[in-house]
Amino acid sequence: MIDLLGQSDDLLRIIEEQFESDIAVRGNQITIVGEPLETQAVSSLFAEMISLVERGVELNRDAIERSVEMLRDGECSPTAAFSDVILSHKGKSIRPKTGGQKRYVDAIRSNTVTFGIGPAGTGKTYLAMAMAVEALKKRSVGRIILTRPAVEAGESLGYLPGTLFEKVDPYLRPLYDALFDMMDTEKSQQLMDRGVIEVAPLAFMRGRTLNDSFIVLDEAQNTSPEQMKMFLTRLGFGSKVVITGDVTQIDLPKGASGLKQVREILRGVNDIEFIDLLASDVVRHKLVQRIVTAYSVFEEARATRDDG
After folding, report:
1. What are phi and psi of 21, to 5 degrees?
2. Residue 259 is inside which H or E element, if any?
3. What pLDDT score does 293 carry?
4. pLDDT at 155
5. Residues with Cβ < 8 Å from 271, sequence gap 6 or more?
6. How wide is the angle at C-alpha 245 spanned by C-alphas 240 and 249, nearest 5°?
7. Cβ pair 181, 238 in contact under 8 A
8. pLDDT tens-digit profile of 92-123?
């Protein structure tokens, strides 16, 4: 009961904040009094919480609030999401935390090419990389390739100091950071030295055929239509591709985004799936979720004014 309700019933109070029903606990018995639909919702939540505790999942405020959201949306059960451990490293488990993230992970497992499209903080890149590391550890693929376009932000790469790799390193640093969060730094460095893990700018993919690989293209909103076509046609036998991006954060100086265009081109193609992650899938600080929502409302209002 302590695992279920928390020390000093902390978790119970979080549940009471979410519902209007009266909840009483005596020993191992939980009594719920209120409107039928509301009491059914609370009962379903407790059933999920008990299932999670039995599976060894530690409950906290975030897990409770996300469980309530999932049950209200009816998209995915909290048990299915939270017990889906993709990877464990140094006592830390990487798993979906929202219904949208669970759909995303399932789509990657089921399809050769998966697009994860959504705002910052929804775990698009992090979960894709976890799936890649898991596939490598299980020997489902022979190597991992992590890539992203090196879009210049007001500064030409040619004028930056250092070798070519030193010039592009800042663009690729977020991929290294996520990788080192999932594997020992020394081990990942050895794999990179052997070419088992490759982190490179998108331009380095041209002219290659990528077999037996798990390939993650990050920041795909900053690809041109030509770059997107070039990348997709690198796909080889035994490979899996995940493409992530946020169409509201396009940094291209001019021209169309390949990520925006590709949905129309590949809509309905078998073995390719597009997963849209929403503000409700943001797993960073709660304030980030509210910021994303506020920007979405602003953009929609501005688009309506422009159309009018």
Report:
1. -70, 155
2. helix 258-266
3. 79
4. 39
5. 111, 112, 113
6. 170
7. no
8. 889 999 999 999 999 999 999 999 999 988 99
Question: Is residue 233 within 8 Å of 227, Cβ to Cβ?
Answer: no
Which two three-digit tokens encode residue 259? 């990520």
Helix axes 36-54 and 10-18, enclosed angle (nearest 10): 150
Half-sphere exposure at residue 163, Cβ-oriented, CA atoms within 13 angstroms: 1
Residue 107 vs residues 134, 163, 256: alpha-carbon distances, Å: 15, 39, 27
In contact, 75 and 46? CB cutoff 8 Å: no
Distance CA 261, CA 238 (A): 26
pLDDT at 162: 58
117: which 2 tokens? 């499209």
The C-alpha atoms of residue 298 and residue 191 are separated, in whole angstroms, by: 45
Distance CA 13, CA 6 (A): 9
Q: Please give the Cα distance from 282 to 295 (Å, whole number).
A: 14
Q: Two tokens at 231?
A: 């990348």
> What residues does 276 pair with on adjacent strands?
117
Contact 298, 291 (CB under 8 A): no
Is the Cα dihedral 84, 58, 10, 34 positive or negative? positive
Beta bridge pairs of residue 213: 143
Q: Which residue has the tokens 């422009």?
A: 306
pLDDT at 156: 45
The residue to which tokens 């700018």 are assigned: 201
Low-confidence ranges of the chain (pLDDT < 50): 152-157, 159
